[in-house]
Amino acid sequence: MKKLSLLSIGKIAMGAVLAYGFLNFIDQPDVMIESFKTGFLEGILGK
């Protein structure tokens, strides 16, 4: 039973982190999109 509650707490924490990142993404879309594009292109080109 303890293991299950710890797992659900972990899921809630992950959801909170994702929601926080998503809100930051909405807050500064231009910067995030630009950095994502450059990171994505560098990943493809292998730089």
UniProtKB/TrEMBL annotation:
The species this protein belongs to is Empedobacter falsenii
Q: Which domain of life is it from?
A: Bacteria
- For this entry, the protein name equals Uncharacterized protein
